[in-house]
Amino acid sequence: MSTIAEDAGPSAQPASPVVAPGALPFQPPNLGLATIGIAMAMFMQVLDITIANVSLPTISGNLGASSNQAVWVITSFAVSNAIALPLTGFMTRRFGERKLFVWATFAFAIASLLCGLASSMGMLVVARALQGFVAGPMYPVAQALMISIYPPHKRGQAIALLAMVTVVAPIAGPILGGWITDNYSWEWIFFINVPIGIAVSFIVGNQLRGRPEKLEKPRMDYVGLATLVLGVGALQVLLDLGNDEDWFNSTKIVVLAIVATIALAVFFIWELTDKDPIVDLKLFRHRNFATGTVALILAYAAFFSVALIIPLWLQRNLGYTPIWAGLATAPIGVLPVILTPFVGKYAVRFDLRVVASLAFIVMSATSFARAGFNLDVDFQHVAMVQLWMGLGVALFFMPVLTILLSDLEPHEIASGSGVATFFRTLGGSFAASLTTWAWNQRSTIHHAQLTEHIRAADPAIKQTVTALGQGDLQRGAVVLDHMISQQAFQIGFNEIFHLLGVLFIVVIAFVWAARPPFSAKAPGAAAGGH
Questions:
Q1: In the CATH hierarchy, which top-level class contains the domain 2-220+278-450+480-529?
Q2: Who's near 153: CB < 8 A, 6+ residues apart?
Q3: How distant, in Å, are the alpha carbons of 113, 115, 116 from that of 123?
Q4: Per-residue pLDDT at 5
Q5: Torsion region of 470: left, alpha or beta (phi above 0 gives left; psi -120 to 50 gives alpha)
Q6: What confidence tens digit (pLDDT) does each residue in 148-167 have?
Q7: 285 DSSP assignment
Q8: What are the boundaries of each domain within the chain?
Q9: How far apart are CA 263 and CA 226, in angstroms?
Q10: H-type helices in 18-120, by residue range?
């Protein structure tokens, strides 16, 4: 469900500058076909972020990988996507929005093909990283293209349509991914992108041929880019490998930590002093931007953790098939689809800190509700908690995005939106690794605690174990260990959600550190200023 987050608020804030005034009169030969092409590309890209979540246990099983390693399928995409986001402005100015969008969409289809053809976890992770990187420019450029082909009085509707597509896609993702995995094979969750991506790139390329664009040769911040890739990449690999490598007892992890620390230190110093940085860290001098972005990162990290853990837990602990795991998680998107247009229209009439606080209270309450789950919880209960969390999701993104952009100068809004998106995406990726690691660690500890009082020589224990194995002591021991493992994972799950519930409450403090007014530079200023 990660991209409900990404796109509950994009209708309010274009993530990239709109096209130059000279391009405004352009009309594609068939406006409807051009719109469908752009919308389908976005649906495909957003769908692919969530479609893999319910398939992770199947993918890891088929490729002989652990559940920890399966999470790399998600984190590799997210990290590469985050790294590509700051490059969007440079690439649009250098190559043009039409060409960039068409080639990014085509490359996304090819990367999807490579994902489906992967025969090992390593190959799949590399292909997903490529897929995430080429997907980076797609949403910001899609917004700019939609704005440029619609007349001024219909641009709001155009962006609302794009936002609705990207809100619906995460609902379809888990269900479609589960259905494909159950009835065909996991590879087809990637293969379905190939014909769609090729067709869409052809349609959009033809419909927007001749669209005026002013190309430049902008300066590239190579030092910033290199240190960003090296630092973030090393940190993500460290988080992904840490558990398997026994953390800092491993030379590999120590080396990765040193590389990440040095590279990120150079990155932050360089970006704060460079005249044209790839990530404009000077924006954090604005109070609302700083506090709002921290709130966005923390809340999105917690939200992303929920979206990742629930499908894994349903399949690993409760024995759900991928399709049923998808059906149980999908209700989280129902209320955002219904309420997002109303939130965008009416939330500005209230103190946005109150609206955001209500969102986090709802998300905290649903996390605490999950902290009380056990192995006997039924489908209806799981789905209902997901449904109510959707209320928090619907109220979350628009207020927080508006708050963090509210005290930026008009010319800083597009950059601010991109920087916030960059850090939010990284936060989700790091949270995925840390959450799965913490879940496994806590489960291992609880397994040891549950077994420490079991004495194999105890006659009563022997009798019980033999009964579990239907007369076979060895088989009974396996059954007992499985039962203990299930309980240990459940206790770990409950602890993680208790922590997430607390984290959502903590986020409220950052929201209230912001200071009104929040409408001084309305979302439209982004369009007006560029």
A1: mainly alpha
A2: none
A3: 12, 8, 10
A4: 39
A5: left
A6: 787 777 766 676 677 677 66
A7: G
A8: 2-220+278-450+480-529, 221-277
A9: 9
A10: 31-50, 56-62, 67-70, 72-84, 88-95, 97-117
